[in-house]
Queue: 2 jobs
Job 1
Amino acid sequence: MNPLIPMIASTVLAATPLIYAALGETVVERSGVLNLGIEGMMLIGAVAGFAATRSSGSDAVGFLAAAAAGVALSLIFGFLTLNLQTNQVATGLALTLFGIGLSAFVGHNLAGLPVARLAPITIPGLTAIPVIGDLLFHYDIMVYLSVALFIGVQWFLTKSRAGLTLRAIGESPGVAHAIGKPVLTTRYLAVMFGGATAGIAGAYLSLVQTPMWVEGMSAGKGWIALALVVFGTWKPARVVIGAYLFGGVTQFQLFAQGFGLPIPTEFLSMLPYAATVVVLVIICRDPKTILLNQPASLGHSFHSAA
Amino acid sequence: MDHSGLADLKPRLVLTGITKRYPSVVANDDISLSVRPGEIHAVLGENGAGKSTLMKIIYGVTKPDAGTIMWNDQYETIAAPSQARRMGIGMVFQHFSLFETLTVWENIALALDEHVPTAQLAARITEVSEKYGLPIDPYRLVHSMSVGERQRVEIVRCLLQEPKLLIMDEPTSVLTPQAVLILFKTLRRLASEGCSILYISHKLDEIRSLCDTATVLRGGRVSGSAIPRNETNESLARLMIGGELAECHLTPREPKEVRLEVERLSLPTPDPFGTSLKDISLTVRSGEILGIAGVSGNGQKELMAALSGERLSTGSMIKLLGQPVGALDPAKRRTVGLTFVPEERLGRGAVPPMSLAYNALLTGARKGMVLNGLIHPSVMRTFSKTVIERFKVKCGGEQSVASSLSGGNLQKYIVGRETMLQPKMMIVAQPTWGVDVGAAQLIRQALIDLRDQGVALLVISEELDELFMISDRLCVLAAGRLSPSVKPAETSIEQIGTWMSGKFGEGENDASTPAASYLEAAHA
């Protein structure tokens, strides 16, 4: 078999959780809320999904539990930042720390236990096609759902009325309130959506990528997802491309290590993060790109004066 | 339109005893008014008189503490703007309620309650905007539009909803005289179709020619109501400010040496939707006011940026006191003796979340407010207090946050601040935009006083009446080109209006040519 095929396949696996988390955060940020708690919500999702699948034996139950756990955590964030108008950056950081601690505590007895990996689905006829079948049609259901999520988010933000309202609120909540748009409700829904996708992203780690629970297993992927949103200048398509690029670089360095290239492994492991930094710098070089694309009210609390 | 006929109709909107208290001020105190179908009802009042609060209450943005609202004979509690819109109330805001990064059609779609497909909506926008003489491109992004164009979007947005009551907050300040007439025609047609209009304006002439009835507010209370047709500007102003209207006096003076000289300034704009400056030449001398008329979006923003130093230019196209300053940034130009009042008060003229005192420090640091690199708070506060006192700025003291002041009050403060820096040359953009009569006269008089002290002033304004009142010479900026200058006494509003549409002689930027020859050029 062509060695490129497994590399591409593993790229997709590496990118999928990033896509879930980053697309969710894109929606959250387009509504004007900056939730830095993705890492925490991913870990909670990972442990909740793992526990639920182990006790029920069903992956669907696992992913649903993970989404629910992510939503629960995001509601704490929503209550603090939207109702009590705490600082979004500080609250998001606290949420991450809380998520790391809580997931470690809850998952203490789960560490090292096995769970069956979510199996790739077989599509009659398609999976059997040589090369193309291997490249496109032998993934697990969550990969296909991530594509559906991308299409859904893209449609929602650019075509739907609700998406227009959400963007308007992210642009100027004061004006949106003045013309009668429900700022708080919309932001709550966005934050909950972000929580659900972050939870699913976490469960993808503990049920598919490395089917077990390990403390702190997200290993900074929540932060990468946040960077990807900026990388994609708050546009879903670019966010997804960024996720695949990052996944590709991650896999490349693993393969490079495997092939024994004469580069110290430390440098190779650094590659994905260095690539993220370089890309972010390039994107931010033109301030206009950020100015025109970043939601104007991002990170600011909204208080209606009425 | 016939007022006696209106009297027979049942009122559409009746406000009784509306009261709204804020921690430091009673914005509305027992206000009652009623509007009939087809009536154009003026709401007159100075800054802080409570007009905006009252309109926000009608539009459901703010809840009153007391009082009742009756709409079509039924008591209503208007809890939200969406409810107001469903009832048939539309509002054109003074501070525009547009989303800058969205397109025109997206902005309009947001305010509609039903879903309309994009193409269909765009077609309707084009149709309505052309019908009412306010052409706009539905696919343009709002942040690339001028103030005047943004207001068109606001007005068209309301008209699309076919309102029963239209609230207009200072709608004509960004229109050419010809466009004002078109708008009035629009409003009269709307009224004849049965739409009621609440018209907030400080332009007494407009109110007298357009409105059927007027309610005058002063200090949050109704100070009187009138039929504007039967009143004079003076009697309306008396009701509004409780005293006589101060007059501006421009005594002829012989201007002295040249302070600002712009020679063949051409500057392409970096903004794809902006206006490039083309071959602009002008001079301003000590002790004279040069007024620049024109509808915004014709290069005013760009000219201001080029003169203030926000945008740099090469060579010696711009000379300040004989010194080429094209390459100097705004701070350096200020040390040469320039001060300026930008059009945008919040964000360019003042830092919104900072106190008035700190905002004084921003441009007045050289006036002894900074000592050995440290802020000298008492000097800063005294300076700030003097501005507040001299320019009668209504605020809670020098520690008030800039964004808490009404537009007019903040403008008084900014003009006062720049005036007290003892400039040699001062540039003012839209000095009285959205400012009421009393405050506007105060600002104009301050500019004239400066001129009499020998300062050279360049005033960019959309208000023709104002420019005719205070300018020694007058010219028009249209599509990035500057017309020749003319003495106000030697021209007419119509002539300037024609120039505003870009019809003036080609390549005749000589300030000394008499106006008469351009009249011919305009007809050619």
Note: The CA atoms of residues 56 and 62 of chain A lie 8 Å apart.
Job 2
Amino acid sequence: MAVTKMFPENKICQNILQVTWLVLLCCAFSLFTLQANAAVLAPDRADILYHSYEGGGMKIDGPSLLVRKKTSESLAFKAYYYLDSISSASVDVMSTASPYSETRHEGQLGVEYLHGKTLMSFNIRQSDEDDFLARSFGFNVSQDTFGDLTNLSLGFAYGDNEIGRNGDESFQEQSEQYRINAGISQILTRNLTASLNFEAIADKGYLNNPYRTVRFIDNSLPSGVGYQTEIYPETRNSFAAKLSASYYLPYRAALFFHYRHFSDSWEITASDVELGYRHPFGDSFELELKARYYQQTQAEFYSDLFPYRDAQNYLARDKELSDFNDLTLGIGLTYTMPASLSFNDWPAEATLQWDYMKFDYNNFRDPTAEGGIGNEPFYGFSANVIRAFYSLYF
Amino acid sequence: MDKWQRKIGTITFLLALGGLSGCSSLEIEPWVKPYERQNLADPIMNYSRHPIANMHVAHVLEARESARGAEGTGGGGCGCN
């Protein structure tokens, strides 16, 4: 029997907690030693959005609402609601189960407090679906410094998940997540800014998808293939670093660049690169274009087809843990509404965005296709993502 | 020291650097003066100009890709099947 490695979960969690505690102490000290100076909270606004994702046998859509309101020059509140209405007949579902539909509700409440050049925010979040309840909170501090050319940010978040399985009342699992992030944003020239962000995430508990199975060769069955439940490690530690830059072009347009590198203790390495372009036309229209490419390697314990039952300690055939890449091409148009169409003469915008996504899997085969066990063609699909939203600045 | 401890060490260093800078009283002359920042202050330069759309993009990607983090938005609970 092949053996997969164990992960040093407790040490990492302890380190993260120690670092977080030091950071919070440092920030609290900074807060009371810095001279107060003008920084401002973001303006009041309300956004209402309709979103739609369709591709790979899935259709997900629903509304979303985001409101942020200042109660003074130093205090602001934020509320967010999001609904996913899901109907799925994806390749994972069709190979071993039946199509299903469900809804997911998500709510967030946040508060921001500005003291001099220090912005502190606290956020709580809950996501609820039939078989998954996620609760989390997060605390962030950011600070303008060095003549306001530099902004430093630090954050910590904790999440707790309760995982169930529809049709199996006895199934009840839990997982926890710790996140810690740090960032620096820097004005480099009068037309260029750049930022660097880091985030470490530690998960522990039940990290499987409770519905998914792996397949293995079983010549005792007429089909020649058997299925068993996936088994994941009970810890996962990951690290991501992202470099971003924004450049103002001489004819009033903006260019955006992002590069992120990711690795985790499951031996997945990923990177993505994105280029964006924003161009206003007249006083009323703004065009956005973007292209993004993502690629990842497989998890150490992933296989499309195992040689026999219980072939390893850990087993996965989740296509999100396979070796794959995806490409996103996006276009968006924002229209600044005339006062005659705006509520109470408040500035308002309407935006439509469309993303086309194409996924190509390099070692996940389509089990519903012809070709024989282990010789089916590699899976791939495309998806269309639509966002239509109205933004009101009040 | 394994690679995860090294990464945690890197973050610790960066955070300590951040804390120190916050606690310091360094007077650095800004090489881009406040009155030279009108291009950077233009709304078209704000990548988070549409926060509700960015939150949706992050959710779509997190449900379908293994990479996570360093994005500034939360995830979890997904409709991933």
Note: Residues 9-392 of chain A form a domain with the Porin fold (CATH 2.40.160).
